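W.,

You were right to be curious about this one. When I first looked at the sequence I had no strong expectations either way, so I just let the prediction run and decided to look at it fresh. Below is the sequence, 313 residues in total, followed by the output.
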Amino acid sequence: MDTRLSRGIACGAAAGALWGLVFLAPQVAGDFGALQLAAGRYLVYGAVAVLLLAPRWPAATAAVGRAEWWALVRLSLLGNIVYYVLLALAVRWAGGAAASLIIGLLPVAVTLVGTREAGALQLRALAGPLALCVAGVGLVGAEALAMGGDAADRTRRMAGLLCAFAAMASWAAYSVVNSRWLARRPDISAHDWSLLTGVVTGACAVVLAVPAFAPTSGSHGSADWLRFWAVAATVAVLASVVGNGLWNRASRLLPLTLTGQMIVFETLFALLYGFAWEQRWPSVREALAIVCLIGGVWWCARAHRVPATPPAA
């Protein structure tokens, strides 16, 4: 495996380890709504991004035009605000393990789009890895729906699974669009692009904070709010600032078909954190799902060791 590929995979795995924290945040934060979690996280993310960019704002934004700012707005909504609201709902209603494994379908969605790129591997070369990923997600879906409970519980879990699928679709769109913009504007560093996304996301979070925090109630004490903002700040800095920067680096080092597979590390670390938080081992079906997902990523990485054959003239 060449150095460029190895560095890209390392960056993708590190980003996944940090992104996995977002699945744990709704459980650690306590009884706070999805809008509040999203608003809190992205207000901090935006503030940190502004502070990091402030000393060199003119230089960092000199090459950013109207088209780039609008692209950053779309990316902020797809990959941050909308995605995290849906994810928080999925974790609350379907559980962290189910939500994280549904998000595990992201490699399938992104890789399928990536096969349309010029010079990409043919779909038939990726059929095996993709089949393993689909099998893994199918196993966790069966696990979630087989759990006990009354009709209301099953309805809530189903709604959570649907939110997870919607979150997956939102982030898949973000991943593809973000990768293409990074390729289109190589003169803008991946780190600056990530921080600019944070600035725009923070501006969107200011608007989101109005409905999120307007209904004041006495249900949360000072200790609850302290924990909430500690969780929001931790996820904002580690997952949004550092994790997004690593992901943008990986996106420039890897082809889109392999970039999609790197998202599975988010799922694997989310499962690890979730099982540790719940103090339990995975069930048989969950363990098989993890094996399928790891196997799919490893298989896809090996497929990329051989350069794709260019189409005949």
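Here's what jumped out at me. The radius of gyration is 19 Å. And, maybe more interesting for your project: The CA atoms of residues 69 and 200 lie 8 Å apart.

Coffee later to discuss?

I.
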